[in-house]
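Researcher: Next sequence.
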Amino acid sequence: MKNIIFAIFIFIANSVLYAQTTYTGKVTDVQNTPLTGVAVIAKNSVNKGVATDSNGNFNITLNSPEVIIKYMGYETQIVTFTNTSNVIILQEDTQALEEIIVSASREAQKRSEIPGAISVISANTIEETKPFGIEQLVNQAPGVYMSTSKASSNEQHMMAVRSPISTKSLFLYLEDGLPIRPTAVFNHNALLEMNDVTFGRVEVLKGPASSIYGSEAIGGSFNFITKNPTPELEGSLGFEINDMGLTKYAFEASKNVSEKLGLYLGSQYVQRNNGPIQHSDYEKFAVSFKTVYQLNESTTWTNMIDLIDYRSDMTGSLTEEDYNAGNYESDQTFTERVAKAFRYRSTLTKIWNEQNKTAFNFVFRNNQMDQIPSYRISQFRQNGQLTGEGSGETNTNKFNSFVGLIQHKKDFNFANSSLIVGATVDYSPQSYIAETIDVTVDPNTGVNTAYSLDNSSYILNYDADILNYAGFLQYEINPLENLKVTAALRYDRFEYDYNNLLDGQAGPKDSRNQYDNIAPKIGLNYNLNNHTGVYANYSNGFTPPETSTLYRNSYVGVGGEVFDLKPSSYNNYEIGGYFVSDKWKLDAALYILDGKNTLVTLRDNNDQYYNANAGKTRSYGIEYGITFKPVPELSISHNGSYAKHRYIKFYDSGIDYSDTDQETAPNLLGNTQINYQPNFIKNFSIGLEYELVGKYNTSFENQIDNGDGSYSTATYDGHNIFNLRASYQLYQFEIWAHALNIFDSLYSTRASYNRYSRENNYSIGNPRAFHFGVKYKF
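Model: Next structure:
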């Protein structure tokens, strides 16, 4: 009897110990994108495991619920299943060469396979930074300087990447890999048409990327990758305020409402009143709605709508006297910018099999921007004294866009090679109206107090249909195990059909303008080991003239021929390297960017802006990023660049400025951060940030008459700014505080020389300021 009982006990024990359970689940990234090919391995047996399918799903039978989750580019996790259906969310491994990048080709690639300088602002970095402006994110990338008047905090901006600080169409702004504006309708303030609440990740690809993206992808391409729906209901309600008059409300909600359909909603309202600079109020409402529908295991349909409603005063820059005296009273009382932007994107992604994948994209854009621009205001003087009168303009620019893009990727069974082919068509009819206004000026203070429309004086009134069609391909191959070769080629055709609605009254006569371009790229990566690699590339970038530049250039007479502005072309030569370890992350790039027919903005003797092609320019320098983590709680990083930007061949007003430095082109840019998350205070972090912008010329060489027969160059001495930030999370609440410009330094985000007044004008940076935020997460 005892033996029978003992045998039964052994049988039951064995059944309990070795009982097997079938577990199902899904593996996604933090943006809820399904991850294909993720290894789900039994912890107690390396021979027991499965891989996720194209929908991120898996099914595994185990004796023990503990598994190891491994996937290239993501942190390995050890998970204990708590039920039979599980959702695992993997975090990107930003400290490895396997970090996944999508911006180089619109396809997921390892960093070690991209022959170019690329910086990633991850979801974790965005969460830690708590930005209230996009510049607080992108300026962390080496060699990037987004110039915005922080004291006015109205999101209007300029950019510098491998180029001077300018308004030129040298930068491409993308949302999920697709441009937010059409070719030839570039606006240097385009990022105010973005909803930064939706950003899940930002990738900055520096240097020309025209072989994939086409026009304007020259200095840098900024890809803002939006958040995806989350498996369970998640969201937040946030409020921010600072002592520069800004308040911000933000709301997010996200959920997979079924096994196939996920929804995401992100919205914000920002308002600015009574800041340190007069006439700097603004407000913005933005809402984005995204759906991700899994039609079947191999087909995903993604739709997204963005709606932006924006209005801002246009303060204008300060004179040198007011800047140095700390007098922030504006000369403007009525200048403004109003922007309304609507974008709809639909993407159908089909995985045909393990080797073939196609993405079909459709984009519709509807934009309108109305302005009374401060930079067009001129005050009339007589014998050097204000007369009480002046002039300016009001203008309206509208466009619709209809865009189709198809891209197919084919993987081959030899040498880890693949081919990407694609084609795109962008048809964007545009209208533009500009009219003269009469300005009333207070002769005692110089303040522009009122304006009236001069009905007899149109500057321009035209329609312009813009058609851009292109085809591209990119081939990658590993001829050797550690060597990756990438070659790409793109052909673009641009057709502008300009119709002057004021024939004989204003503007040039009707015109058709066509431009063609072939943009090649070739690069290679050689990875010495799993931690170290080097790369080299040659790439071409280009940009045709903008329609607003082409058809309103001051050299054009009424009813005359359109001024012959040429497309700008750039050749980029670059070498770089990268290294990662448990404590260090290093990357560096040396580049030369040669420009031909570079477009520059000049001022004539009447203080009016006009555009001209510079003969040749050259930018060259080094970009570098260093991150050191001596302990897991402490991170020290420095991202910077040293560069020279030169006119190789350039004439203005009969004067030879060849072999001189370009204006508004700082040699040094830097961003240093120290971030600390102490173990003894859970969910608390504190960080110190140092911003560096080096000295630069604000005028061409030898334009300032010193009065003694000699001439000199106007300059800006640069600036050094320190910011402090801290955050703390308690249960579902998170609070944070930023102390900006903690030493209250006087600085300008951009300084330029005014030939008429013979002094610098300054876009003032923020004085010492404090910013607070609170967020409730659910």
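Model: The domain at 100-221 is CATH 2.170.130.10 (Ferric Hydroxamate Uptake Protein; Chain A, domain 1). The chain has a mean pLDDT of 89.
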